[in-house]
Amino acid sequence: MKIPLVWLKDYLDIDKTPKEIAESFTALGLMLEKPIENNVLELEHRFDRSDWLSVIGCARDLSAIEKKELKLPQRHTEKGKDGGGVEIKVECPKVVNRFNTRVFRGIKVAKSPKWLSERLELYGIPSINNVVDITNFVMVEYGQPMHAQDLSKFDAREIVIRMAKKGEEITTLDGTKIILDPSVFILAQNDKPITIGGIVGGKETAITESTTDIILDAGNYDQSLVRKTARKYKIHNETVLRYDKFLHPAGTQLALERAAYLILELAEGEYYENFDYYPKKSALNVSKIRLDRIMKISGIEFSISAVKMTLESFGYRLLEESAEELTVEVPYFRTDFSVEDDIVSDILRVYNFENIPNAKINTAPPKDLTPEILKFEEKIRDSLIKLGLHEHITNPLVASDINDFKQIRLENSQNSEQDALRTNMYDTLFPIINTYAKHKIFEAGIFEVGKIYLKEGDKFEDLKEVRVVEVIYEKNSNLREKSKYIQSLLFGLFHELDINNINIKKHDDKNSIYQGSLLLGEIRFNSFSLFTENLLCALKNNIKVVDEFINTSEEDLSLILEIGKSAGDIINFVNNFDDRIIGLEILDEYEDSTIGLGKKAITFRLKFVNEKGITEIKESLIRGLEDKFGIKIRK
Amino acid sequence: MELQDKIDKIKNAFFEDIKTFEKSTDFDALYLKYFSKTKGEVTNLVKELPKLKDEGRKTYGPIINELMENLKKQIEGLKANYKNTLQNDPFIDLTLPANPKKTGFLHPATQVIREINDFFRYYGYSVCDGPEIETADFNFRRLNLPDNHPATDLQDTLFIMQPEVLLRTHTSSVESRILTQYGPPIRAVIPGKCYRNETGNKSNNSYFYQYQGVVVDEGITVQNLKETITLMLRFLFGNETEIRCRYKYYPEVSPGLGFDIKCTFCKGVGCDVCKGRGWLEMGGSGMIHYNTLKMCGIDPEIYTGFAFGMGLDRMVMSKFNISDVRKLYSGRVVYV
User: Fold this and answer.
1) CB contact under 8 A, A369 and B154
2) Domain for residue B98, yes or no?
3) B188 lies in a domain?
4) Pair (B16, B164) in one structural domain
5) Which domain holds residue B57?
6) Beta strands A87-90 and A158-163: pairing type?
7) Within this chain, do residues B122 and B268 fall inside the same structural domain, yes or no?
8) Measured distance CA(A570)–CA(A627) in Å, rounded
9) C-alpha pair distances (Å), A624 with each of A561, A577, A628
10) Sign of CA dihedral A222, A223, A224, A226
């Protein structure tokens, strides 16, 4: 909202510098949007206070904090003559709360006086002629949009407010042709659209230099429909800016009275009453304001007289008073009001939040709610850092892929490269390897701890967020070397996290990582991904007896295996063979002429608890391996 | 066996051992072989002394003592000798730097999150998290933002199923969840990803990190909020940091407060970076709205609370000198 200081001073005697005025506005909640220029303050609007889209509204709050009197402008409050003669028919009563009109005859359209054109131009609205300028001026002054039309352009003496028919057309004031549909409401005369309701007027009935008779209207409409329509046609103007907020129907009366005063002053003519469509009167809000509530929110004791003074300067009307509380009527323009605390806010705004002291919380800290998974994921990060990997965070938003039936897509993304959620983390993380390569780093290990998003059905409950850690390792080397390294990272991580009894199963092209029947993730030749929630379960499943004095013995075994056959099941078999086998370490994997073509040897070291019967276990293990897998064992 | 024989035997054995140990560095094993308290061979000799008659003790005492001193001296000598060899090895040059053994790096965002988490953990806050795919209920309605309210314009929402299922636009959605789930007293912080429907530019991304805090208890006031914000900002930007609180509307709080630090570029004079304000906006906060508490099942006449939130990305960018927010999450920042 732009506030030309010369305009602001029409309502308030203030001799502070523009910077000081900006500081007072800031304390009130109206912070500068940009540096001050030409003695115009541009203040940030937060969509709550529709009266802060008016100069008077801003002046009123300033008057409260500066303890200065607010001087309201002159209005023409006397009734006009009977016989306006334009009938108003509202066919869409759900949309129109009020449609308030006046008629003027015999006016003189001319240039605006300097004080008027200057104020509008400082605000940023070009001056056109006295009548149009007055409607714009009053809109910015009171925050209530208004609209003047040339009555001589009307074929019928009526305005019908109705939903548009499909295909109806209107040419707006700036010459744009718009094709309407039934989701939009319009003002029509002789069954022709003359205005898009709450949005923009049409060219046909616009005021010109030869205009003598006009109808002036100020409406109050369903703000959500104005919002939707404006967005649909991408029309953003001063009218929409105000009509898509919550305005009170009472504002139309004041605005018309003010405009009537100015028209009679500047354009002369005669003034007639006309229809005021206002079927359901909107009552004003009434609220209590308790001193102990103010205390509860601010920790500060206020006197009832101080509260009364502040509220009156904001325009609240006192209804009842006791030692402990007031009952007040909330002014019509405060459509932001919903609870007593909003009135507390008004009192504290004038007190100024800067003047409220600081105080420590004096209750004991409550119990810790931090979920275990969050702590565990930090541990995963630390473990991977120790293994020399760098953490990255990548964008979970990706381009949609129609072949990915598990993908969750966004309905309204403005960016076609980011209109879906990732279903795996490899694809968003892998491109980072190229960045390393550009920096001439050809060996890089990276990881991300985050989420992937899967659609398992059409309901909200079927949209799953899965916690994942993805690790990628790349190096200029052959696949065997790379895959050995990624395996050592995987088992390094398990070692760091103290997760045991891992086995890897190959089915089809996938190598899945399990602990028992618990799926932990998947390993590929250059990467692996793990479900962190399942890892946490795996950690809890760890049954590990720690005994310092455990006495162990070791035994090396060599298996001869066909190349291409996966060893995962064999390792799993050995690991689960007997509780007294407490460790398995792969020592070597090799092929040579002594083993035979198409075969390889894997040497591993078993660690046993030293107990009686170990020899038997070893023997039956070897028998078991030979029987179950048909493989040769070299001792 | 006569004691003298034993002494001679030990002497001989030690002489042999020295030959083999000469090239080894395992001096401790050698020491233990002779002087271990339980099994050391010389120790065993000493243990035999009390069994001798007075005369024997007088004879062998000094001999064994001398043996002990002698052997220990020889072991020390070996050690010193070994050290000398090391220092004299012409191939060892400890002045020549080597490639460091490298560990990895945490992402800048993780580092900053941890730093702030640590601060709040110290003050008894939990660290919480919630879903990114949210309902309009938790993201808007429970936060006092009814459908079609003009303030929904403050956040351009990315929808999965309009108008009910969306990507959370702020971490406040987690606030409404934990208020609903746990009830007071609560002290929690929520670092997390949020999403807005924006085409990315240098300082805006369609996804970003927010850091949220929430406290609900009996007797919580604006004064506690101001103290918390002050401590946090001084922790982040230094003890000398000047801080300003002002009223600012946010739907989920009433009253709402914005907090600023004095502009680091113009020192408060007013410049383009701070939009002429002289202050840099750090985040938003306020007393949790009466209706929000009620909708989350908490009695607002008994409990009060505050919430605050701030964008993390700009903080991370300034801390790590990153000029473009998109770099932060596209992997264009690498660790070399």
Assistant:
1) no
2) no
3) yes
4) no
5) 3-88
6) parallel
7) yes
8) 12
9) 15, 9, 6
10) positive
Residue A179 main-chain phi, psi, to 5 deg: -95, 125
The verdict on B328 touching A (C-beta cutoff 8 Å) is yes
Cβ of A397 within 8 Å of Cβ of B248? The answer is no
Interface with A, mutate which of B116, B206, B257 (most A CBs under 10 A):
B206
How many domains would you assign to chain B?
A: 2
Q: Are residues B77 and B118 in the same domain?
A: no
| Domains of chain A, each with CATH number or no CATH | 2-66 (3.30.56.10), 87-277 (3.50.40.10), 286-355 (3.30.56.10), 372-541 (3.30.930.10), 552-634 (3.30.70.380)
Q: For residue range B164-215, list pLDDT tens digits in order.
A: 999 999 999 999 999 999 999 999 999 999 999 877 666 567 888 999 999 9
Query: 3-state SS string over A49-91?
Result: CHHHHCHHHHHHHHHHHHCCCCCCCCCCCCCCECCCCCEEEEC
Q: Is B201 on the interface with A (CB under 8 A)?
A: no
Any B CB within 8 A of A32 CB: yes
Domain-ending residue, one of B55, B88, B121: B88
Domain annotation covers residue B99: no
**What is the residue type of B302?**
I
Chain B residue with the nearest C-alpha to that of A33 = B275
CA-based nearest residue in chain A for residue B166: A410
Q: Which two tokens mark A67? A: 């303890």
> CB of B200 within 8 Å of any CB in chain A?
yes
Residue B7: half-sphere exposure toward Cβ, Cα within 13 Å: 17
Q: Residue B130 maps to which CATH number?
A: 3.30.930.10
CB atoms A338 and B332 under 8 Å? no
Alpha carbon of B315: minimum distance to chain A alpha carbons (Å):
16
Strand A214-221 relative to strand A390-391: parallel, antiparallel, unpaired?
Answer: unpaired
- Nearest residue on chain B to A431, alpha-carbon basis: B331
Is B97 within the bounds of a domain?
Answer: no
Instruction: From B53, B88, B123, give the residue that closes a domain.
Output: B88
Complex ipTM above 0.85?
Answer: yes
The rounded average pLDDT for each run of 10 residues, N- to C-terminus, in chain A (635 residues) is: 97 95 95 91 91 97 96 95 92 96 96 97 96 97 97 92 96 92 94 94 93 96 93 93 95 97 95 94 96 97 96 96 96 96 97 96 94 97 96 94 94 89 96 89 93 95 96 90 92 92 87 92 96 93 61 83 82 83 84 80 84 82 86 73
* Cβ within 8 Å of B, A 428-447: 429, 431-432, 435-436, 439, 441, 445-447
Contact (Cβ atoms closer than 8 angstroms) between residue B252 and residue B212? no
